[in-house]
Write a sequence for this structure.
């Protein structure tokens, strides 16, 4: 997730013709000053759902199967553990359900 913006005259050209930055030049950086992980790497004590359509809770760490419960936007949830699943992280709630650790869906409370 980008946390800042920087430019370069000699960078690569934007070829997305439908974007507002069409034909402008720039570059993408991996400098840790400007980027941060999309998923939580350490356990937050509580999280707040910020996704517009809410967030689904599941019984399995791979977020498969029947939806156990849907949490509405603004819900505050207690996190008991963090689990790695491939290249992402899942947050285990106090009731044993798993939700995504994506920072665009939940925020540390």
């Amino acid at each position: 997730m980008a946390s800042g913006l920087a430019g370069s005259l000699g960078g690569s050209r934007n070829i997305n013709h439908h974007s507002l930055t069409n034909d402008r030049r720039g570059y993408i950086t991996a400098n840790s000053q400007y980027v941060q992980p999309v998923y939580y790497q350490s356990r937050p004590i509580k999280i707040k759902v910020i996704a517009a359509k809410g967030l689904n809770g599941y019984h399995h760490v791979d977020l498969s199967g029947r939806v156990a419960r849907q949490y509405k936007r603004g819900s505050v949830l207690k996190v008991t553990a963090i689990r790695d699943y491939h290249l992402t992280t899942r947050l285990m709630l106090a009731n044993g359900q798993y939700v995504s650790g994506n920072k665009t869906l939940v925020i540390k409370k």
User: Anything to note?
Assistant: The radius of gyration is 18 Å. DSSP finds no helices and nine strands in the chain. The beta strands are 12-13, 25-26, 46-49, 55-57, 69-71, 76-85, 88-93, 98-100, 106-108. Residues 36 and 109 are 18 Å apart (CA to CA).
